[in-house]
Amino acid sequence: MTDLAWIDATLTSARPQALGALLRYFRDLDMAEEAFQEACLRALRHWPQNGPPREPAAWLILVGRNVTLAVHVAPAASVAGQVLVCAKSPFAVTPESATDADPVLRTVTWRAPLVVPTFC
């Protein structure tokens, strides 16, 4: 194989498993594909110097999930942390009170645990 052809072959063979796992995790095809593409970009940066990991599909799943969570969910979770002031507060947001009108808040409250400051 040429110098980067092995990476292409590895990514191509790992794609169905990685994309399927990311789709099951995020339950959103666009987000799963974006996560896989970001993981592939990181693989292209790291694998030529370090070689492929033992389980390329698992590596792609882990990196894709972590990068996507850091980009999409973490900023929304910090906003939700500011919104969820106190669990005892009548203004606390719960998964039941999040409506379809606010999909970001619904996603954050569904995926993230309730943020309760220590002063409550």
Key terms for this structure?
120 residues, mainly alpha, 4 helices, 0% strand, disordered C terminus
Write the layout of secondary structure elements.
Blueprint lengths: L4 H22 L2 H22 L5 H28 L19 H9 L9
Helix pairs in contact: 1-2, 1-3, 2-3, 3-4
How would you characterize this protein structure?
This protein is mainly α. The protein has one domain (5-111). It contains 4 helices and no strands. It has helices at residues 5-26, 29-50, 56-83, 103-111. Helix 1 (5-26) packs across helix 3, helix 2 packs across helix 3 (56-83) and helix 3 (56-83) packs across helix 4. The radius of gyration is 18 Å and the shape is globular. The termini are far apart. Mean pLDDT is 75; it is low at 83-91, 108-114 and 116-120.
Explain briefly what this protein structure is:
By secondary structure, the protein is an all-alpha fold.
Mean pLDDT: 75
Q: Report the principal-axis shape.
A: globular
Structural class: mainly alpha
Rg on CA atoms, Å: 18 Å
Distance between the termini: 61 Å
Helicity level: 55-70%
Strand content: under 5%
Count of folded domains: 1
Number of strands: 0
Low-confidence stretches: 83-91, 108-114, 116-120
Helix count equals: 4
Largest sheet: none
Order of helices and strands: HHHH
